[in-house]
Amino acid sequence: MPQIELKDISKIYTVGGQTIKAIDSVSLKIARGDFLSVVGHSGSGKTTLLSIIGGIIRPTSGNMLFEGGDISNLDDDALSGYRNEKVGFMFQFASLLPVLTSVENVMLPGLFSSADRSDDYRKAAEYLDIVGIGDKINSYPSQLSGGQQRRVAIARALLNDPDVILADEPTGDLDEETEADIMALFKRLNHEKKITFILITHNLHLAAQASRRLRMTRGALEEF
Ligand SMILES: Nc1ncnc2c1ncn2[C@@H]1O[C@H](COP(=O)(O)OP(=O)(O)O)[C@@H](O)[C@H]1O
Ligand SMILES: [Mg+2]
């Protein structure tokens, strides 16, 4: 059974009487531990696709299956349970809260989970160590470089031990060396923890390092 299966997914946005077909009949099977890259022009539907896989938005039609179960029919509570327990999100900007330290920022997703959180501080510190900034746990975002802030966001995405990491241009504004470091970290997590990665990137060199490469064109998806 695939870990994730998209069955004929479409998404139509309606804005002021206008309709936009952001996703056009996409089908895709993803196995646990796959590393997918997604490239495509701005507006081609990449973020919408990732949001559907992550249960942030619902498709207009079609089905999104996780481990065989259809998440498109879950109620809001069950869908947020899926988001919190299975998925780690990384967005284009690190989006850390400036008033919280690194370790507090990493612990943040725990606030939205019903599970026992007593172990979060230890885990947060451990993940900051794994991503290479164990010496910065008490620093505030303003005291960190862009690459260090990005690592905090990566540690935060790891806190709930996600099965899947959805990363939307996570290294977009970083220098090449930091970008390469972060890509190496992703590949290590993919390999060692069998976390599935779906990485949207404009960088064709990064995209080429994925085990499966996808391109979106006006809502349609092709593997190449
Ligand atoms: N919330 C929204 N409401 C209306 N239209 C949207 C919304 N989000 C995205 N779109 C439109 O859907 C299309 C795909 O957008 P998006 O998924 O963000 O593409 P990409 O991430 O590839 O740039 C674009 O035409 C965009 O303007
Ligand atoms: Mg986008």
Report on the structure:
There is one protein chain. By secondary structure, this protein is of the alpha/beta class. The chain has a single domain (4-223), classed as Rossmann fold (3-Layer(aba) Sandwich), CATH 3.40.50. The protein is built from 7 helices and 10 strands. The strands form 2 sheets. A 6-stranded mixed sheet has the order 6-7-8-3-9-10, sandwiched between helices. Strands 2-1-4-5 form a 4-stranded antiparallel sheet, covered by helices on one side. The chain starts with a strand and ends with a strand.
CATH H level, superfamily name: P-loop containing nucleotide triphosphate hydrolases
The first-to-last residue Cα distance is: 23 Å
Bound ligands: adenosine-5'-diphosphate, magnesium ion
The CATH architecture assignment turns out to be 3-Layer(aba) Sandwich
Look at the helices and sheets and give the structural class: alpha/beta
CATH domain class name: Alpha Beta
The count of β-strands is 10
* Secondary structure tally, helices: 7
Strand content: 25-35%
Low-confidence stretches: none
Largest sheet: 6 strands, mixed
Helix share bin: 25-40%
Provide mean pLDDT, rounded: 92
Q: Order of SSEs, N→C? A: EEEHEEHEHHHEHEHEE
